[in-house]
Amino acid sequence: MAESENGRAAKRLKTDADNERGDVGEVSSDSPVSDFEITRILRDCSREKNIFIHGKVKDQDAVVILEKTPIRQDMLSELLKSSQLKLEMKNDIYSTYQLQAPAHLNEIKTTVVCPATDKHVKKYLHQEVFLVEESGEDYRNITLPYISSQSFSVQWVHNILEKKAEADRIVFEDPDPDTGFVLLPDFKWDQKQLQDLYLIAIVHRRDVKSLRDLTSEHLPLLTNIRSKGEDTIQRQYGVPPSKLRVYLHYQPSYYHLHVHFTSLEYNAPGCGVERAHLLSDVIQNLQADSSYYHSRSLAFPLRADDGLLLRFKEAGKL
Protein backbone atom coordinates (compact mmCIF):
# COMPACT_ATOMS: atom_id res chain seq x y z
CA MET A 1 0.00 0.00 0.00
CA ALA A 2 1.31 3.45 -0.89
CA GLU A 3 2.43 5.52 2.05
CA SER A 4 0.08 8.37 2.97
CA GLU A 5 1.06 12.02 2.42
CA ASN A 6 0.85 12.58 6.19
CA GLY A 7 3.17 9.62 6.77
CA ARG A 8 5.71 10.96 4.27
CA ALA A 9 5.43 14.43 5.73
CA ALA A 10 5.94 13.11 9.26
CA LYS A 11 9.09 11.27 8.18
CA ARG A 12 10.36 14.36 6.35
CA LEU A 13 9.51 16.40 9.41
CA LYS A 14 11.60 14.24 11.74
CA THR A 15 14.56 14.12 9.36
CA ASP A 16 14.57 17.88 8.82
CA ALA A 17 14.29 18.53 12.54
CA ASP A 18 17.16 16.14 13.30
CA ASN A 19 19.36 17.78 10.68
CA GLU A 20 18.60 21.31 11.85
CA ARG A 21 19.09 20.69 15.55
CA GLY A 22 22.45 18.94 15.38
CA ASP A 23 23.64 18.01 18.85
CA VAL A 24 20.39 19.23 20.47
CA GLY A 25 19.09 15.65 20.17
CA GLU A 26 22.11 14.05 21.83
CA VAL A 27 21.84 12.47 25.27
CA SER A 28 22.63 15.03 27.96
CA SER A 29 25.61 14.16 30.13
CA ASP A 30 24.57 16.76 32.72
CA SER A 31 21.01 15.87 33.67
CA PRO A 32 19.15 18.68 35.48
CA VAL A 33 16.67 16.15 36.90
CA SER A 34 19.10 13.66 38.46
CA ASP A 35 19.47 15.92 41.52
CA PHE A 36 15.84 17.04 41.52
CA GLU A 37 14.20 16.81 44.96
CA ILE A 38 10.40 16.73 44.81
CA THR A 39 8.53 19.19 47.02
CA ARG A 40 4.97 18.80 45.73
CA ILE A 41 2.81 17.97 42.73
CA LEU A 42 1.44 21.15 41.21
CA ARG A 43 -0.90 19.56 38.70
CA ASP A 44 -1.58 16.06 37.36
CA CYS A 45 -3.69 15.69 34.21
CA SER A 46 -4.49 12.13 33.18
CA ARG A 47 -6.35 13.22 30.03
CA GLU A 48 -3.40 15.21 28.70
CA LYS A 49 -0.93 12.70 30.14
CA ASN A 50 1.29 15.22 31.89
CA ILE A 51 2.37 16.09 35.41
CA PHE A 52 3.84 19.32 36.83
CA ILE A 53 6.25 18.95 39.77
CA HIS A 54 7.72 21.60 42.07
CA GLY A 55 11.04 20.91 43.74
CA LYS A 56 14.68 21.91 44.03
CA VAL A 57 17.82 21.35 41.98
CA LYS A 58 20.94 22.08 44.02
CA ASP A 59 19.04 24.44 46.37
CA GLN A 60 17.36 26.29 43.49
CA ASP A 61 13.58 26.20 43.04
CA ALA A 62 12.61 24.32 39.92
CA VAL A 63 9.56 23.09 38.03
CA VAL A 64 9.75 19.84 36.05
CA ILE A 65 7.04 18.98 33.52
CA LEU A 66 6.75 15.37 32.37
CA GLU A 67 4.58 14.65 29.34
CA LYS A 68 3.98 11.44 27.43
CA THR A 69 4.72 12.01 23.76
CA PRO A 70 2.15 11.06 21.09
CA ILE A 71 2.45 7.72 19.33
CA ARG A 72 4.16 8.24 15.99
CA GLN A 73 2.56 6.67 12.94
CA ASP A 74 5.89 6.01 11.24
CA MET A 75 7.08 3.96 14.24
CA LEU A 76 3.98 1.79 14.69
CA SER A 77 5.38 -1.29 12.95
CA GLU A 78 8.56 -1.27 15.05
CA LEU A 79 6.56 -0.57 18.21
CA LEU A 80 4.29 -3.58 17.72
CA LYS A 81 7.04 -5.96 16.66
CA SER A 82 9.66 -5.09 19.27
CA SER A 83 7.50 -4.63 22.40
CA GLN A 84 6.58 -7.17 25.06
CA LEU A 85 2.95 -7.74 26.06
CA LYS A 86 1.76 -8.54 29.58
CA LEU A 87 -1.78 -9.97 29.63
CA GLU A 88 -4.18 -8.23 32.01
CA MET A 89 -7.55 -9.68 30.99
CA LYS A 90 -9.06 -11.96 28.35
CA ASN A 91 -12.77 -12.51 27.72
CA ASP A 92 -14.05 -14.04 24.48
CA ILE A 93 -12.71 -11.90 21.62
CA TYR A 94 -11.53 -9.11 23.94
CA SER A 95 -8.14 -8.92 25.65
CA THR A 96 -6.16 -6.11 27.28
CA TYR A 97 -2.42 -5.94 27.82
CA GLN A 98 0.30 -3.73 29.25
CA LEU A 99 2.64 -3.05 26.32
CA GLN A 100 6.26 -2.64 27.38
CA ALA A 101 7.96 -0.72 24.59
CA PRO A 102 11.72 -0.34 23.98
CA ALA A 103 13.16 2.77 25.63
CA HIS A 104 13.59 4.71 22.38
CA LEU A 105 9.88 4.24 21.61
CA ASN A 106 8.71 5.16 25.09
CA GLU A 107 10.09 8.63 25.59
CA ILE A 108 8.77 11.23 28.05
CA LYS A 109 9.12 14.87 27.06
CA THR A 110 10.71 16.70 29.99
CA THR A 111 10.69 20.47 30.46
CA VAL A 112 12.80 22.01 33.23
CA VAL A 113 12.34 25.57 34.53
CA CYS A 114 15.29 26.41 36.79
CA PRO A 115 15.61 28.64 38.66
CA ALA A 116 11.81 28.92 38.91
CA THR A 117 10.14 31.99 40.38
CA ASP A 118 6.91 32.12 42.38
CA LYS A 119 5.18 33.18 39.16
CA HIS A 120 6.31 29.99 37.44
CA VAL A 121 5.08 27.86 40.33
CA LYS A 122 1.69 29.60 40.43
CA LYS A 123 1.37 29.32 36.66
CA TYR A 124 1.42 25.52 36.81
CA LEU A 125 -0.52 25.10 40.06
CA HIS A 126 -4.06 23.76 39.67
CA GLN A 127 -6.54 26.42 40.75
CA GLU A 128 -10.11 27.62 40.35
CA VAL A 129 -10.78 29.58 37.17
CA PHE A 130 -13.14 32.54 36.77
CA LEU A 131 -14.51 34.13 33.58
CA VAL A 132 -14.01 37.90 33.47
CA GLU A 133 -15.80 40.24 31.06
CA GLU A 134 -13.61 43.25 30.31
CA SER A 135 -14.99 46.37 28.60
CA GLY A 136 -12.74 48.76 26.71
CA GLU A 137 -12.92 51.08 29.69
CA ASP A 138 -12.01 48.22 32.05
CA TYR A 139 -8.93 47.54 29.95
CA ARG A 140 -7.74 51.14 30.17
CA ASN A 141 -8.59 51.57 33.87
CA ILE A 142 -7.80 48.12 35.31
CA THR A 143 -5.93 45.77 32.98
CA LEU A 144 -3.44 48.12 31.32
CA PRO A 145 -2.28 49.75 34.61
CA TYR A 146 -1.89 46.25 36.11
CA ILE A 147 0.16 45.02 33.13
CA SER A 148 2.34 48.14 33.27
CA SER A 149 2.99 47.67 37.00
CA GLN A 150 4.16 44.07 36.66
CA SER A 151 7.55 42.77 35.62
CA PHE A 152 6.36 40.57 32.75
CA SER A 153 9.68 40.02 31.00
CA VAL A 154 9.67 39.36 27.27
CA GLN A 155 13.46 39.34 26.98
CA TRP A 156 13.32 35.74 25.80
CA VAL A 157 11.11 36.92 22.89
CA HIS A 158 13.63 39.63 22.00
CA ASN A 159 16.38 36.99 22.11
CA ILE A 160 14.52 35.00 19.43
CA LEU A 161 13.92 38.06 17.24
CA GLU A 162 17.59 39.08 17.55
CA LYS A 163 18.82 35.50 16.89
CA LYS A 164 20.48 35.32 20.28
CA ALA A 165 18.51 32.16 21.08
CA GLU A 166 16.60 29.47 19.17
CA ALA A 167 17.81 30.75 15.80
CA ASP A 168 18.08 27.18 14.52
CA ARG A 169 14.37 26.62 15.27
CA ILE A 170 13.08 29.42 13.04
CA VAL A 171 11.38 27.93 9.97
CA PHE A 172 10.51 31.23 8.29
CA GLU A 173 11.23 34.94 8.72
CA ASP A 174 9.95 38.08 7.10
CA PRO A 175 12.40 40.76 8.34
CA ASP A 176 10.18 43.76 7.53
CA PRO A 177 10.10 45.93 10.71
CA ASP A 178 6.40 46.79 10.30
CA THR A 179 4.77 43.69 8.80
CA GLY A 180 7.44 41.04 9.44
CA PHE A 181 7.58 38.14 11.86
CA VAL A 182 9.41 34.92 12.68
CA LEU A 183 7.68 31.53 12.59
CA LEU A 184 8.95 28.70 14.78
CA PRO A 185 7.61 25.51 16.40
CA ASP A 186 6.03 25.85 19.82
CA PHE A 187 7.69 23.71 22.49
CA LYS A 188 4.40 21.84 22.95
CA TRP A 189 5.10 20.21 19.56
CA ASP A 190 7.94 17.69 19.33
CA GLN A 191 7.91 17.92 15.48
CA LYS A 192 7.65 14.16 15.08
CA GLN A 193 4.06 13.98 13.80
CA LEU A 194 1.56 16.36 12.23
CA GLN A 195 -1.51 15.62 14.35
CA ASP A 196 -0.38 18.06 17.06
CA LEU A 197 1.38 20.56 14.79
CA TYR A 198 1.88 23.85 16.64
CA LEU A 199 3.84 26.89 15.48
CA ILE A 200 4.03 30.47 16.73
CA ALA A 201 4.42 33.65 14.66
CA ILE A 202 6.13 36.40 16.68
CA VAL A 203 5.99 39.90 15.20
CA HIS A 204 9.07 42.09 14.89
CA ARG A 205 7.16 45.15 16.09
CA ARG A 206 7.59 45.76 19.80
CA ASP A 207 4.81 48.30 20.27
CA VAL A 208 1.89 45.85 20.10
CA LYS A 209 1.25 43.93 23.31
CA SER A 210 -2.05 42.19 22.58
CA LEU A 211 -5.34 42.13 20.73
CA ARG A 212 -6.37 45.35 22.51
CA ASP A 213 -3.66 47.36 20.71
CA LEU A 214 -4.77 46.35 17.21
CA THR A 215 -6.39 48.81 14.80
CA SER A 216 -6.89 48.87 11.03
CA GLU A 217 -3.31 50.19 10.84
CA HIS A 218 -2.17 46.65 11.67
CA LEU A 219 -4.15 44.91 8.92
CA PRO A 220 -1.11 44.61 6.60
CA LEU A 221 0.76 42.92 9.47
CA LEU A 222 -2.06 40.49 10.24
CA THR A 223 -2.78 39.56 6.62
CA ASN A 224 0.93 39.06 6.02
CA ILE A 225 1.18 36.69 8.98
CA ARG A 226 -1.83 34.70 7.80
CA SER A 227 -0.71 34.50 4.16
CA LYS A 228 2.99 33.74 4.64
CA GLY A 229 2.44 31.61 7.73
CA GLU A 230 -0.06 29.36 5.96
CA ASP A 231 2.09 29.18 2.81
CA THR A 232 5.17 28.19 4.82
CA ILE A 233 3.32 25.47 6.75
CA GLN A 234 1.81 24.03 3.57
CA ARG A 235 5.16 24.07 1.77
CA GLN A 236 7.25 22.73 4.65
CA TYR A 237 4.84 20.31 6.34
CA GLY A 238 2.21 19.57 3.70
CA VAL A 239 -0.66 20.87 5.87
CA PRO A 240 -3.12 23.10 3.93
CA PRO A 241 -4.78 26.20 5.42
CA SER A 242 -8.10 24.32 5.61
CA LYS A 243 -6.56 22.05 8.26
CA LEU A 244 -5.14 24.84 10.42
CA ARG A 245 -6.52 26.75 13.39
CA VAL A 246 -4.95 30.24 13.35
CA TYR A 247 -5.71 32.46 16.34
CA LEU A 248 -4.61 34.93 19.00
CA HIS A 249 -5.06 34.57 22.75
CA TYR A 250 -6.67 37.14 25.00
CA GLN A 251 -5.40 37.46 27.62
CA PRO A 252 -2.07 36.34 26.10
CA SER A 253 0.49 34.39 28.10
CA TYR A 254 3.08 37.09 27.29
CA TYR A 255 2.64 40.69 26.15
CA HIS A 256 4.28 40.77 22.74
CA LEU A 257 1.93 40.15 19.82
CA HIS A 258 2.06 36.58 18.54
CA VAL A 259 -0.22 34.29 16.53
CA HIS A 260 -0.81 30.57 17.03
CA PHE A 261 -0.92 28.07 14.15
CA THR A 262 -2.18 24.63 15.22
CA SER A 263 -3.53 21.53 13.54
CA LEU A 264 -7.32 21.30 13.60
CA GLU A 265 -6.84 17.76 14.92
CA TYR A 266 -5.06 19.06 18.02
CA ASN A 267 -7.08 20.28 20.98
CA ALA A 268 -4.36 22.72 22.01
CA PRO A 269 -4.39 24.35 25.45
CA GLY A 270 -6.18 27.70 25.22
CA CYS A 271 -7.96 27.05 21.92
CA GLY A 272 -11.43 27.30 23.51
CA VAL A 273 -13.87 30.10 22.75
CA GLU A 274 -13.23 31.83 26.08
CA ARG A 275 -9.64 32.66 25.11
CA ALA A 276 -8.94 32.10 21.41
CA HIS A 277 -9.82 34.64 18.68
CA LEU A 278 -9.52 33.39 15.10
CA LEU A 279 -7.17 35.54 13.06
CA SER A 280 -9.66 35.63 10.18
CA ASP A 281 -12.29 37.07 12.54
CA VAL A 282 -9.85 39.63 13.93
CA ILE A 283 -9.02 40.81 10.41
CA GLN A 284 -12.70 41.11 9.44
CA ASN A 285 -13.56 42.96 12.65
CA LEU A 286 -10.81 45.52 12.06
CA GLN A 287 -11.83 45.95 8.44
CA ALA A 288 -15.35 46.82 9.62
CA ASP A 289 -14.27 48.99 12.58
CA SER A 290 -10.74 50.25 13.15
CA SER A 291 -11.32 50.67 16.91
CA TYR A 292 -13.17 47.37 17.36
CA TYR A 293 -10.78 45.96 19.99
CA HIS A 294 -10.44 49.31 21.77
CA SER A 295 -14.15 49.43 22.63
CA ARG A 296 -15.43 45.86 22.48
CA SER A 297 -16.02 43.85 25.67
CA LEU A 298 -13.83 40.75 25.76
CA ALA A 299 -14.26 37.75 28.05
CA PHE A 300 -11.31 35.68 29.27
CA PRO A 301 -10.50 33.21 32.07
CA LEU A 302 -8.35 34.10 35.08
CA ARG A 303 -6.99 31.78 37.75
CA ALA A 304 -7.84 32.33 41.41
CA ASP A 305 -4.38 33.65 42.34
CA ASP A 306 -4.04 35.99 39.34
CA GLY A 307 -3.35 39.54 40.48
CA LEU A 308 -5.52 40.86 37.68
CA LEU A 309 -8.51 38.96 39.07
CA LEU A 310 -7.99 40.71 42.40
CA ARG A 311 -7.99 44.10 40.62
CA PHE A 312 -11.33 43.28 38.98
CA LYS A 313 -12.76 42.21 42.33
CA GLU A 314 -11.53 45.40 43.99
CA ALA A 315 -13.22 47.41 41.22
CA GLY A 316 -16.50 45.62 41.90
CA LYS A 317 -16.51 43.91 38.53
CA LEU A 318 -16.93 40.37 39.95
TrEMBL record:
InterPro entries: DcpS/DCS2, Histidine_triad_CS, HIT-like_sf, Scavenger_mRNA_decap_enz_N. One of its GO terms (biological process) is deadenylation-dependent decapping of nuclear-transcribed mRNA. It catalyses: a 5'-end (N(7)-methyl 5'-triphosphoguanosine)-ribonucleoside in mRNA + H2O = N(7)-methyl-GMP + a 5'-end diphospho-ribonucleoside in mRNA + 2 H(+). Coiled coil: none annotated. Substrate binds at residues 156, 166, 186, 188, 249-260. The active site is at H258 (nucleophile). GO terms for molecular function: 5'-(N(7)-methyl 5'-triphosphoguanosine)-[mRNA] diphosphatase activity; RNA 7-methylguanosine cap binding. Its main location: cytoplasm. It comes from the Eukaryota. GO terms for cellular component: nucleus; P-body. Pfam families: DcpS, DcpS_C. Residues 1-24 have a biased composition (Basic and acidic residues). Its EC number is 3.6.1.59. Keywords: Acetylation, Cytoplasm, Hydrolase, mRNA processing, mRNA splicing, Nucleus, Phosphoprotein. It is found in: Cytoplasm; Nucleus. Residues 1-30 are annotated as: Disordered. Transmembrane segments: none annotated. Signal peptide: none annotated. PANTHER family: HISTIDINE TRIAD HIT PROTEIN MEMBER, M7GPPPX DIPHOSPHATASE. Belongs to the HIT family. Homodimer. Associates with components of the exosome multienzyme ribonuclease complex, such as EXOSC3 and EXOSC4. Interacts with NDOR1. Decapping scavenger enzyme that catalyzes the cleavage of a residual cap structure following the degradation of mRNAs by the 3'->5' exosome-mediated mRNA decay pathway. This is m7GpppX diphosphatase. It comes from Culter alburnus (Topmouth culter).
